[in-house]
Design brief:
The protein is mainly α. Helices cover 64% and strands 2% of the residues. Helix 1 runs antiparallel to helix 6.
C-alpha cells in the first residue's frame, strides 16, 4: 500500500507535471509544472489539518465531522470500516494522494492564463467545496452514494470516476469558459513545446495508475490483480481507438496515442475493481473514440479553449466510465457487491440509474462550486486571469521570474 501511495504521488509529479507542462508553449512550462508541484504541498497540508476528517469522518450523508482534525486518532491501528488489514495512517496517506492529483487535473484547462495566487486560492476553496464533500458521499461511511457503508443511493466507484475525474473535468470546463480563451487562441500557433517530454509524462501516468486502481483493492489479492488487468487493458484499447480515429482523417500522432491511453485510464477507473477483462477492453476502446470526438470535434464545434483537454478527457471519460460501470459491474469480480447483483450484466439494470444519479450530483457540485469559487477568487485576487501583457511574456517570467530554458547560460 505504501508503494501504491508512492505510485499515485508519482502521477502528479513528475507524471502530470511533465505531461501538462510540456504540452504548453515553452514560455509557460515552469508555471504549468509549478501548479502540479504546488498542489503536492498545498493539498497535503489541507488534508492533514482537516481534509481527511471532512472526507472520512462519519458526519452526515454529505460531509464528514471533525473527529480526525489534525489527524487526531489516525495511527498504526487498522480502520475496520475502511481498511481492516493496514494501518489507519496508511489508508489516510493513500487517500491523500487522490486529494493531491484531483485538483491538479483541473490546471490543464486554464493553462497559460491563470495567476499563480488565484490558482492557490482556487484550489484551496475547491478542495473544501467540491472534493471533500464528494469523497465523503462516495467513499465515506454513511455517505449518500456509498455502495458498501450505508449509502442510500449505492453508486459504484472503485477508484475515483465520480470523485476524481468528473469533478475535476467538469470544473475544468467551467474554468475554461469563465476565464475565456488564451490571448491569440485560434490565430497564433500554440503547439506543444516538447512532445518528447509529454510522452514520458504520459507513460509515468500509465505506470502510476496501477497504484491508483489496483491499490484501491487495499491488499495484494485477486481483486488487486483484476483491477490491475482491467486498467492496463483499457489503456491499451483506448490508445488504439484514438489513433485509429486519427488515422481515418489524417495521420496517427504521438499526442493522439498518449491522449488515448490517458482517456482509457480515466474511463476504467470507476469500474476497475468491478469488471472482467473483456468489458475492460470494450470500455477502453469506446472511451478512446468518445474522448477523441470530444476533444477534436465538440471542442472545435463550440470553440472553447480547454487548453490541455482536461474536460474532453477527464470530464467526458469519467462520465462515460461511471455509466458503463453500471452496465459491466459483476459480483463475479467483486464479492463485496450486495445481494449478488452488480450492474446490468448481473441483471440489475437499476444500477445504471444509481450511476446516473451519482454522475448528476458530481456534475452539479462541480459546476455550482466552481462558479462560486471563481467569483470569490476574482474579488479577493483582483481577477483570476493574468493580464494580456503577462500572457504575452509568459507566466514563467511574469508569475515566477524564471525561464524554463536558458540556452545562452
Amino acid at each position: 500500500m505504501l508503494v501504491s501511495c508512492a505510485l499515485v504521488l508519482m502521477m502528479t509529479g513528475p507524471g502530470l507535471a511533465l505531461f501538462y507542462g510540456c504540452l504548453v508553449r515553452k514560455k509557460n512550462v515552469l508555471a504549468t509544472m509549478m501548479q502540479s508541484f504546488t498542489l503536492m504541498a498545498l493539498a497535503t497540508v489541507l488534508w492533514a489539518i482537516i481534509g481527511y476528517s471532512l472526507s472520512f469522518g462519519e458526519g452526515s450523508a454529505f460531509i464528514g465531522d471533525l473527529r480526525y482534525l489534525m489527524l487526531e486518532g489516525v495511527g498504526g491501528d487498522p480502520m475496520p470500516d475502511y481498511a481492516a488489514t493496514i494501518p489507519h495512517q496508511t489508508w489516510m496517506l493513500f487517500q491523500m494522494m487522490f486529494a493531491i492529483i484531483t485538483p491538479a487535473l483541473i490546471t490543464g484547462a486554464f493553462a497559460e492564463r491563470m495567476k499563480f495566487g488565484a490558482m492557490c486560492l482556487f484550489m484551496t476553496l475547491w478542495s473544501f467545496l467540491v472534493y471533500y464533500p464528494m469523497a465523503h458521499m462516495v467513499w465515506g461511511k454513511g455517505g449518500l452514494l456509498n455502495a458498501f457503508l450505508g449509502g442510500s443511493i449505492p453508486c459504484f466507484d472503485f477508484a475515483g470516476g465520480t470523485v476524481v475525474h468528473i469533478t475535476s473535468g467538469v470544473s475544468a470546463l467551467v474554468c475554461a469558459l469563465y476565464l475565456g480563451k488564451r490571448k491569440g487562441y485560434g490565430t497564433e500557433p500554440m503547439k506543444p513545446h516538447s512532445l518528447v517530454l509529454s510522452f514520458i509524462g504520459a507513460c509515468l501516468l500509465w505506470v502510476g495508475w496501477f497504484g491508483f486502481n489496483a491499490g484501491s483493492a487495499l491488499a495484494a489479492n485477486a481483486l488487486a490483480s483484476s483491477a490491475f488487468t482491467a486498467t492496463h487493458f483499457a489503456a491499451a484499447t483506448a490508445a488504439i481507438g484514438w489513433v485509429l480515429m486519427e488515422w481515418l482523417h489524417s495521420k496517427p500522432s504521438v499526442l493522439g496515442g498518449i491522449s488515448g491511453a490517458v482517456a482509457g485510464l480515466v474511463v476504467i477507473t470507476p469500474a476497475s475493481g468491478f469488471v472482467k477483462p473483456g468489458p475492460a477492453l470494450i470500455m477502453g476502446f469506446v472511451g478512446g473514440i468518445v474522448c477523441y470526438f470530444m476533444v477534436v470535434k465538440v471542442k472545435n464545434m463550440f470553440n472553447y479553449d480547454d487548453s490541455l483537454d482536461a474536460f474532453g478527457v477527464h470530464g467526458a471519460g469519467g462520465t462515460l466510465g461511471a455509466i458503463l460501470t453500471g452496465v459491466f459491474a459483476t459480483k463475479a469480480v467483486n464479492s463485496a457487491i450486495a445481494d449478488g447483483k452488480g450492474g446490468l450484466i448481473d441483471g440489475n439494470g437499476g444500477q445504471i440509474v444509481n450511476q446516473l444519479i451519482g454522475v448528476a450530483i458530481a456534475w452539479g457540485i462541480a459546476i455550482v462550486g466552481t462558479l462560486i469559487i471563481l467569483k470569490i477568487c476574482d474579488i479577493v485576487c483582483g481577477g483570476v486571469r493574468a493580464t494580456p501583457e503577462q500572457e504575452t511574456i509568459g507566466l514563467d517570467v511574469s508569475q515566477h521570474g524564471e525561464e524554463g530554458y536558458n540556452f545562452d547560460a
